[in-house]
Amino acid sequence: MSWLFLAVSLIGLWFTANALWPARRIQLVGPSFFAAWLTGELAGFHLAWQVVATVMFIALGALSGAAGFVGLAVTALSWFGLVWIIVVASRSSHTLERALRDALGADYRDRIAPGRLAHLGPKGPWRKLFFPFWLREPGVERIRNLRYAEGARERHLLDVYRPRAGADRAPVLLQIHGGGWVIGDKSQQGLPLMNELAAAGWVCVANNYRLSPKATFPDHLVDCKRALAWIREHIAYYGGDPDFVVVTGGSAGGHLAALMGLTPNDPEYQPGFESVDTSVAACIPFYGVYDLVDTFQDPDGTPTDMRLATWLMGASIADDQARFERASPVYRVHAEAPPFFVIHGDHDNLVPVDQARAFVKALRDTSRHPVAYAEIAGGSHAFDVFHSVRADNTVNAAHRFAAWAYAVSSETPAATPPEAETPARIDPPAGVNATMGGVDAAAGGGS
Fold this sequence. Notes:
Layout: H1 2-20, H2 29-41, H3 43-59, H4 66-90, H5 92-104, E1 140-147, E2 157-163, E3 170-176, H6 191-199, E4 203-207, H7 219-234, E5 240-250, H8 252-262, E6 282-286, H9 292-295, H10 306-313, H11 321-326, E7 340-345, H12 353-366, E8 371-376, H13 389-411, H14 432-435, E9 438-440
Parallel strand pairs: 3-4, 3-5, 5-6, 6-7, 7-8
Antiparallel strand pairs: 1-2, 1-9, 2-4
């Protein structure tokens, strides 16, 4: 029993150590990410099971040999690490608030309409920690599987999240899922943020898009712009304001969200709907990929992950580097970029935090609009997919930024760009009964 206790203790310590220092070697990145992600965001649960397991082992006589006492010391070290992870996560609220104040001004909350943030509260990050995967929010309904374009079956469907009590010209959020451009679904990501905003009166839209290798860039971006065009035309029927849309997404979705913000009304990415206004009011990318050249090429010029690069771009970086640059947000920065709130974890071993830093610097050097940047200590990739202290603090901060952007847009209504026009709204959308998969009384986890 002593040796078994020691073995279990070493396994527990590995999970804790990996969450603190995730592996970055390509051969270990995948397993290390999943272990660090679940340990870092569920540190309290890990601490609880380790305590329970330790008590059980001791009751069964694990301290009858020297190995048992070594195991107890190893376990105590793991507990110390887990407590530290919890402490670091709790500090994320200060990091996020400081990022918003630095970018928007210390009085940014005063510009938000009274009651707009009523859904938020000081206990927000703690309410759902005992049920981290319960992503439903009372008072929110999800209208599933609305078709926004033809030709790609389920990849051209979207879901609408809105207040169950209804909405009228509510601000709109467009959520773009990640998955390395090759996997993912609209029902799997961004749920804490969408439910939070919909409960506070927003209308949120989550869209699928064509995936690689069947699709190559810019197909993914074109589909997201088609979803935005659908919002312009139809969202009023669901209670949303077609003139105010914030775009967000994580990982590959963060890459596409950033490009949505940086390429408004670009006819190259709007085949057949060039006249639709595809500008957005603000952009909130989470742990996004901002430089495809850096992603698919080592500093010495050696290509990396050539299969994914070819799947995504239809060419290797050696054959057409300029194509990779045009698909990279860091190369598309310009003075008229909308307000950005870039969020990235400093423990992200899938997309290095250096990409976010370089992207933010380029934005701040060029854009005339505010650029907020929150580097989340201890944050891994996809840390906001389910409820945790860090995730809920980040969701609340993203909500405040979006509410600020809405307040600012209300102060100074933006004129429609001369080269783009908003199409006439259809009320109700044509064929809505044929394309509606169903309505959920409360929006929840992907299934």
